[in-house]
Queue: 4 jobs
Job 1
Amino acid sequence: MTEAASQDRPPEDPAGITVRGLSRRFGSVHAVVDANLVVPPGSVTALIGPNGSGKTTLLLMLATLLAPDAGRITIAGHDPVTDPAAVRLRMGWMPDVLGSWPSLSPRAALTVTGQMYRMDRSQAARRAEELIRLTDLGDLADRPARVLSRGQKQRLSLARALVHNPRVLLLDEPASGLDPAARRDLQALLRRLAGEGAAVLISSHVLAELDEMADAAVYLAAGRTASADAIASSSARERAWRIRALNPAVLARELAGTDAAVSVDTFGSLVHVGSQEAAAALLARLVDAGVQVTEFGPAVGDLEHTFLELNRPEASA
């Protein structure tokens, strides 16, 4: 299960990402307010929040592209405000939309990017070839970028972020435009990079995918990172479980005899239970009653459940 990655004052991790008391405003708008997080090396951390929550502003500060008004950041042991060059040598940045040189092929773009990181041309060409294979751009490697689809440009953007073998990765909606097979490959690649010691921070609205790859999560709302206590409380609240059976009528009859709140939609029965223990007991009861259960699991993933609970109007009141 994905763990909370937010603490009031996280311990510093010099090899990964540490954010303490970070704030940034634009006029009267407080985009980020006293944000705190830590992303240790060897892990994938999800950055989650509704539109307008401050995620992009936070990522821009981490990426050395925006200075904070207050607080401190360290990335791989360096401060992006006082030593942005050192951070950029150790960090790969993939924004939501990265402009491509339309007349350059992926091979040429990656080679030029490598040279920007002070590789000689032969080194840059070798690295470009590695990344073309890694991101499955072989059939497109020598075609101009203007003919690439949105998903293909995303793969090129990721390859550019990886050119210099960064130890820290900042990814903003990296799966946008990718087909299911490419999304699966992306998940496997990010887990592999984390397994090799990289600290990966990934922002996405597709929470089901983050559930499958993230070790921890940071929740941002109105520019503030949720506390560990708020996350734990929200994740523990009653949730809906999806149940299907070979005979829906038999399932409905058995559920009618329970104290659980039950609703039915086109996808089957939704049963609200207060804990995993209660869900396990309900499943055992149904099986003992002879119900041929074909599906039993949470209606939404852990991250989505926690996100929705944190952002309920009464939760923020």
Job 2
Amino acid sequence: MPPRRRAEGPRPRRWPFILLFALGALAGVALWAYAPDLPREVLIARYANEHSKFIEVAGAQAHVRDEGKADAMPLLLIHGSLGSLQMWDGWVAELQDRYRLISVDLPGHGLTGDWPRGEFSVEAYADFIEVLADTLHLDRFAVAGHSLGGAVAWTFAATRPERVSQLILVDSAGFPRDGGELPLPTRLARQRVVGDIGIYFKPERLVRRSLLEVFADPAMVTPERVKQFGELQRFPGNRQATLIRARTQEPLDPSPLKRLDVPTLIIWGAKDRWVPVADGFRFQNDIKGAKLAIFENLGHDPMEENPKATAAAVTEFLPAEPPSPLSPPQPQTAEPSTADQVVAPAVVPEKD
């Protein structure tokens, strides 16, 4: 008789081990990718300098630098989304002997961080700029804005025309995207779970990819620039502000541009892959008398990529003398009181 085969017992279930391994791998990736906020004091020590001041502006502790000639034309510099005032360092070096240069980290950016107001829209930032100007005792001044900061600059000029003597727009936001579709990062941020978790992932890899799109010259994407950009995003409050802005900012209405009546210079990098150079021509067409300077070999951040050439366009456009305050409206001469007047009759009677 052939030997009897032993009855096979139940096979061990493998799926619990596979699930456990997958969960462990996912937890490992999450721990590797997780990047908490960095201490405020550490980042201030690392990225502030001798010109940095922290002043209260509309409830925020704003990081501000006031450099150059104190008695010259004030030029207020407004950076773009996820940027910082360091983006203007090249212009400061080129222009400090001619102008008073005021740069600021907008709320939710750089070393300013959170804003108790909790709004991070273009309109809210225009309000912030007004309070900053009042705090610094600026009456009339020139304003330059890059990308999102350009939208803040022209919104400020459109709503406070008496404050702006000249306007400079650098690769500015202002017109809807073709097709009206939001960028992928904005769409992801507007998904509640994905956005809430995603802001805590390490930003460096995304930063590097973004900077390679921003600059026409990849040599600009240095490890130091990637580190600074990524670390400033981890300043307390900045990533939460970015998420709020992505979820609440409505498409811009460019119609006020056609009502602007202020000398305007538009600077654009022809190799901008984020905001097409065609938008530069649209700004020139909509803003009365605007001048357009296009730089063929530069990308979305031309003031960083070639500060010397772009600053030269500024000096050609912007006078060094501070603007005169606008003349107040002349008071109307009061009409004499009716009590002192001799009122003639409506109809003069004829003599008999």
Job 3
Amino acid sequence: MRVLLLGGTAEARALAKRLHPDVDLISSLAGRVPDPALPEGPVRIGGFGGVDGLRKYLQDNVITAVVDATHPFAATITANAAQACVQAGVPHLVLARPPWLHGSALVVGNDREAARTVKDLGYQRVFLTTGRSGTAVFKDATAWFLIRAVTPPDADSLPKNHEILLSRGPYDYGSELALLREYRIDALVTKNSGGAMTRAKIDAAEHLEVPVIMVDRPALPEGVQTVGTVADAETWVRSL
């Protein structure tokens, strides 16, 4: 058995640690983040070239199972993996961390809806945590933005009034509370990523009664098998 683990998340690293070295495992990272946290075991970095490229990789490397433990918003690779595995006849599992409960958050369907909501409701000091690719839709906004990301967004995608905060989680409640207060944030825009690493900003915003605009997750490909925990993913792999 040889397993391809599509990773880049804490869950993927935890699964690789559980499976290595007694399972022949190759972890794949997209390569978009410089100096990424690497999992245990062999690692490949870079894209596959769409569905056809991934199917060829599966066949050329005699992959017998695929676990997709990418970020919940990595919709393209998740869709490509589902299709390539069907075409190659390779068992396929999606490890999807549970989403956050919405609570009092205003849920929107995509980044563009989030930008429209910020404008329509007149927020002026926004904590934007949708990642480097989520800034372009706010480019023409008049509000001020504190933009937190792991890597700098493209300069031509940034709103006029902003400050960049480069950092990588996990984040704790006390620090997030202090951050919201220091920058006098009046709205938080985030994606429903789920997990504990970045949950604290939601809890801090709710404590301060700062409105939360939450971008909902993209739907998973129809018919894919999913689990919500690393332990369940390990069980699936070891049962093959």
Job 4
Amino acid sequence: MDGQSDIACAALMLAESLAGVPTVGALIDRTLNELARVLESPLVSLTEIDLVSKTAATSFRPYLPGHSVAVDAVNEMLDQHPVFIWYSSQQDWSAVRLSDLIPTAELRITRLYQEILVAVGGQHMMTLPLCAPQTGRLICFVVNRADRDFSDDELEFLRRLQPALVTLYRRLSMPATRTSVAAPALTRREQAIVKFLASGLTADAIARQLPCSPATVRKHLQNIYGKLQTHDRLTTVVRARDLGMLRDEDLSTEFEWSVRVNLHQ
């Protein structure tokens, strides 16, 4: 990106490509993929911060085993995080760059940098909120890089993109416009099996986890397929994700994110 017109054009093109997604889950999925591509970020995430209880939940892309440790550590020192301090202390909730909130030399001597950012390869960071901190919670996309900071043009790209993403997120979050397909009611056992599917377990492995017989698991799977109108594990996981039944961290790192299910069938 070079120049204000190119930045505005790139933001508009991405916004237009996202305009037709049917669900909040699909919007988040597509946006994470596009931010990683456009901003050359090897680590992107969606983070939800409760500004009252001072706790955070993060869904990384890609998700690696060590990320759960990083999330726990973030919660321990959230009130020291420059991004948390910034958004909880004033009215501005536009996209920000970490290096604009704290000098790099000062950041490098913090526990946050040494124990979390270096560990996940996120020494450089930008955040793009989807809702105002005044609501009591902050939901934001986060893009990271280890090798170099983000440029002024890249930050401006996020700021140009933000209004469109906020509008799409709000529209899709409204029950009346989210999707014409209502999320079917799964039993507690069926919900557990869907999560096991998402984590990559086979029917036999799920049976050992519950515990029950593999035949019982397969019977539950047939019921789940019927309720979700799917026919195999992959489409079941995608449908459950897009209907909000699964969070990103529930999904196996082996999962193929490019697969889509037509929710309007």
